[in-house]
Amino acid sequence: MPAAMNSRIEPGESIARTFPAQRERITEMLDFLRKAARTLGAPESFMMRLSLVADEAIVNVCSYAFRRRDDLGTPGAPENDQPNEQPDDHADSRTDDFGAGRSRGTT
């Protein structure tokens, strides 16, 4: 279960939110990401690099990964998990904290 944005995040917890994959929502997505990073204790010196990389990734997802469709549906719903000529129109953002300098691949 995702932790609340104003609470202390423990290792293994995540902060998650789903956004429509629309370029006009980039500012909202970046604001969420920066707030999540601050909640996880990221230093301000990291924020500019994070914003630059995230902006590029979000633009790429919004521009190339999804085609628009009228029936957006609910992300994760069975009808959206089926192969479809017009894929779902949402991008998921998830931030996990595995502890300082740690990732799933390290011990």
Structure description:
There is one protein chain. With about 110 residues, the protein is of the alpha+beta class. The chain has one domain. It is about 35% helix and about 15% strand. The chain is built from three helices and two strands; from the N terminus they run βαααβ. It has helices at about 25-40, 45-65, 80; strands at about 15-20, 90-95. Strands 1-2 form a two-stranded antiparallel ribbon. α1 (about 25-40) packs antiparallel against α2 (about 45-65). The model is unreliable at about 75-85 (pLDDT under 50).
Brief description of this entry?
The chain is of the alpha+beta class. It has helices spanning 26-39, 44-65, 78-81, and strands spanning 14-20, 90-96. It has one domain (14-96).
Q: What key phrases describe this protein's structure?
A:
37% helix; 107 residues; alpha+beta; 2 strands; two-stranded antiparallel sheet
What is the domain total for the residues?
A: 1
Number of strands: 2
Q: How much β-strand is present in the residues?
A: 5-15%
Unreliable runs:
77-87
Task: Please give the oligomerization state of what you see.
Answer: single chain
Structural class: alpha+beta
> Biggest sheet: strands side by side, in what order?
1-2
Give me the strand/helix succession.
Answer: EHHHE
Instruction: State mean pLDDT (0 to 100 scale).
Output: 70
**Biggest sheet record:** 2 strands, antiparallel
Number of helices: 3
Distance between the termini: 24 Å
Radius of gyration (CA) equals 15 Å
Outline? globular
Task: Describe the protein's topology.
Elements: E1 14-20, H1 26-39, H2 44-65, H3 78-81, E2 90-96
Antiparallel strand pairs: 1-2
